[in-house]
Write a structure and sequence with these properties.
- Helices cover 41% and strands 13% of the residues.
- The chain contains 21 helices and 11 strands.
- The strands form 2 sheets. Strands 1, 2, 3, 4, 7, 8, 9, 10 and 11 form a 9-stranded mixed sheet that branches. A two-stranded antiparallel sheet has the order 5-6.
Length: 457
């Protein structure tokens, strides 16, 4: 395990990488990049695409070209390359930076044009992945996976959710998943036991209520929900029985009932007020009067760094993590995630060698390299957990480290050709329910009808 002081040196860079590559995905911190971005912007970005660094290749070496974004602010690219090249003499990796804002559009333009010579493509989001598969420019990985007996269960069920037509065209190498952040001082001041890694929603609701204080000027909120629909709706898919793209949303009702009741009783802040004030979730937690907040793992390095620099005060310095709450009968550690993946283009000049790189980066060896940069990989082995929990500023209690071990992992927005349109309908329905512009039943009916119309197009 890398020493805490060494991991601390990479933290600022890791923060930037997480902010750019893993901020909530669909329904999360930003809208997913889609192929709908303007062609003009794509052409401009394509012209500005640059090779990140000259590759010194000896005579006889094979150079693999890797399509990436934001090389200068992404801390894990070069360590992955260094580790792979050390294990594979005679193979060199050349990164080509396609930029962040229009990455998936530029990548699609590159891969559908004549003469594309990328060997490996980084996949930024689910809609972009679906577009590339539909265009027929990604190689199915199933034969490679079978040949090398790759255990897909190590990805927590994610790979099942990105199959298209029964085939897999990408493997994940990093993942941002949802956990429950909490302020230990709030619980200590209330004389209440901390959250645990195995809480049903009933236990979670009771715990939030037990530390709430509604006295004017002394407010303590037992829970906090950011204004993304994912902060509420995705509770409902943790049982693996429901999907956010199926078109029937009755399963969301108990979660809306719980959170609206909390809102009415002052257990959480009012949604409409949060929306109007544009209060960021980090700002809400930094105030020191929020007991628990469901949020993605991308907040871990941000929280550590802001406490370290003094931007956040001692009110939040004593924090911890636990696994997501779950419905009765659901395995603890079931959670939601966004992923970053690698694919092999159909036009790749060196497909077999490209697979060796994909297998390395997306496997346990690559996971340890990624983890040592303070970034959470798609595979969470004991060594990975030790690296992340060993960062300077990470909570030292065992429960917080255990919270990094996931069970069933579900994509925030699964593969679907109409995911963007579905997202729009769900966002509107969520907003109407949370502002009480409609009842829960009316809002769910709006979502049912709206998504049915989208699916029927």
């Amino acid at each position: 395990m890398m020493k805490k002081r060494l991991l601390g040196l990479t933290l600022a860079c890791s923060m930037a990488a997480m902010a750019l590559a893993g901020c909530g995905g669909a329904g999360g911190d930003s809208e997913p990049t889609t192929a709908a971005t303007s062609e003009t912007a794509a052409e401009k970005a394509e012209e500005e695409a640059t090779t990140a660094a000259p590759v010194e290749a000896a005579e006889g070496d094979t150079v693999l070209k890797w399509a990436v974004w934001d090389v200068s602010s992404t801390v894990y690219y070069q360590p992955l390359i260094d580790a792979f090249e050390a294990a594979n003499p005679g193979v060199k990796i050349e990164m080509v930076d396609l930029g962040s804002a229009d990455y998936q559009t530029v990548l699609a333009t590159e891969l559908t044009g004549s003469g594309s010579d990328f060997d490996i493509a980084t996949i930024k989001d689910v809609p972009g992945y679906t577009t590339l598969v539909n265009k027929g420019v990604l190689e199915p990985l199933d034969d490679y996976i079978a040949k090398d007996s790759i255990d897909l269960s190590q990805y927590g069920g994610i790979t099942d959710q990105v199959q298209v037509g029964g085939k897999l065209y990408e493997l994940p190498f990093r993942s941002d998943f949802w956990v429950l952040f909490y302020n230990k001082d709030v619980f200590d001041n209330a004389g209440v036991e901390y959250p645990t890694n195995d809480m049903t929603f009933e236990a979670y609701d009771a715990l939030a209520r037990s530390v709430t204080n509604t006295n004017p000027g002394e407010e303590v909120y037992g829970a906090h929900y950011h204004t993304w629909r994912s902060a509420v709706q995705l509770f409902g898919i943790l049982d693996g029985k429901n999907s956010i793209v199926d078109g029937n949303y009755e399963f969301l009702k108990p979660y809306y009932e719980m959170i609206l009741a909390q809102q009415e009783d002052g257990v959480c802040q009012d949604y409409a007020t949060l929306k109007t004030s544009s209060l960021h979730y980090s700002g809400a937690f930094a105030q020191g009067n929020v007991a628990m907040m469901n949020m993605g793992s991308w907040f871990i390095p941000t929280l550590i760094e802001k406490i370290k620099t003094g931007e956040y005060g001692p009110e939040v310095a004593n924090w911890g993590l636990v696994k997501y709450p779950h419905a009765e009968g659901v395995e603890p550690g079931s959670t939601l995630a966004t992923i970053t993946c690698l694919s092999i283009p159909t036009s790749a000049p060196n497909k077999d060698l490209a697979w060796e790189f994909v297998k390395f980066v997306c496997g346990s060896e690559g996971a340890e390299v990624v983890a040592k940069t303070g970034t959470i990989p798609a595979i969470t082995t004991d060594a990975v957990v030790a690296a992340i929990s060993g960062m300077e500023g990470f909570p030292e209690d065992e429960a917080s480290a255990e919270a990094l071990k996931t069970a069933n992992t579900y994509l925030e927005m699964p593969v679907h050709e109409k995911s963007s349109e579905i997202e729009t309908v769900l966002n509107e329905g969520h907003d109407n329910i949370m502002t009480e512009g409609s009842t829960i039943d009316e809002g769910i009916e709006e979502m049912n009808e709206g998504v049915a119309a989208v699916l029927g197009q």
